[in-house]
Write a structure and sequence with these properties.
The complex is a heterodimer of chains A (93) and B (149).
Chain A (H helix, E strand, L loop, with lengths): L9 E6 L1 H7 L3 E5 L7 H9 L5 H4 L7 E4 L2 E2 L11 E5 L6
Parallel strand pairs in A: 1-5
Antiparallel strand pairs in A: 1-2, 3-4, 3-5
Chain B lengths: L1 E5 L5 H10 L6 E8 L3 E2 L2 E2 L2 E6 L3 H16 L2 E9 L1 E3 L4 E9 L2 H18 L2 E7 L2 E4 L4 H8 L3
Parallel strand pairs in B: 1-6
Antiparallel strand pairs in B: 2-8, 3-4, 5-7, 5-9, 6-8, 9-10
Classes of the chains: A alpha+beta (93), B alpha+beta (149).
């Protein structure tokens, strides 16, 4: 048996601004399928849930992603207990 | 070095006085205040609401202040950013930097604002006669931040 087989990875997903409104939620707890290991595969999996995720998280859309409150890239690892936030480009100041 | 996110207003004069009194080596203090305008992209703005990502906001601002300290010889820096509902003429953001001479203070102040605008997780939603609309990020802001890299 591989060490991780029995463990279910759960993460907290947060949405801000326009994405929070469109998705109708500020946050959700999701159990990750085994093939989700980084930001790119997480985004693809969220898209596979259908609209509005499919449209809003489509490649080329201006979406920024943070993992544990640090800006992330496509290959940033995502795993059990992480906090992953999706939001539009920032407009403060 | 301090960062604060708050709903209430701030007093730039009081903040600068506090900074000045804390260190007799300070010879220059530069400050910037961002203010809500009543017009943006051709629409009248009655008010705006600023949303942020609690936790990450403070972390991002502290990181930006840390970068300014690494680049310039500054004694102190303060960033205060308001959230919640604001109206035209209200203050939104304050940056104050203290150093021995003006060059470092001016540059670090501008750097902090440029980085804050592109890296700190705040979002503005404007209330216009046509309804609410999220403000789009500006490419000019990205260009302003890029010139420091």
């Amino acid at each position: 048996m591989k060490p991780n087989d029995s463990r279910i990875a759960t993460i907290e997903v947060l949405y801000f601004a326009r994405l929070r409104e469109i998705f109708g939620r500020e946050r959700e707890q999701v159990e990750l399928p085994g093939n989700v290991q980084d930001v790119a595969s997480l985004t693809a999996w969220l898209r596979s849930r259908g609209e509005p995720w499919e449209r809003e998280l489509a490649p080329g859309k201006p979406v920024r992603i943070a993992v544990n409150q640090d800006m992330a890239a496509a290959d940033t690892p995502v795993g059990n207990g992480d906090e992953v936030a999706f939001f539009p480009p920032v407009t403060g100041g | 070095m301090t960062v604060r996110v708050q709903t209430g207003d701030f007093d730039a004069g009081a903040e600068m006085a506090a900074m000045r009194h804390g260190n007799p080596k300070i010879g220059a203090i530069a400050s910037f205040v961002g203010v809500v305008r009543d017009l943006n992209e051709g629409a009248d703005v009655a008010e705006m609401t600023l949303e942020h990502y609690p936790g990450m906001t403070e972390k991002a601002l502290e990181k930006i202040v840390g970068e300014a300290r690494a680049r310039w010889d500054i004694y102190d820096a303060l960033v205060v950013h308001r959230v919640g509902t604001l109206k035209p003429t209200d203050q939104i953001v304050l940056v104050v930097v203290a150093s021995a001479h003006r060059g470092e203070a001016f540059q670090a102040c501008e750097f902090l604002m440029d980085y804050l605008k592109t890296r700190a997780p705040f979002w503005k939603k404007e209330k216009t006669p046509e309804g609410g609309r999220w403000v789009d990020a500006r490419t000019a802001d990205d260009a302003a931040a890029d010139r420091w890299s």
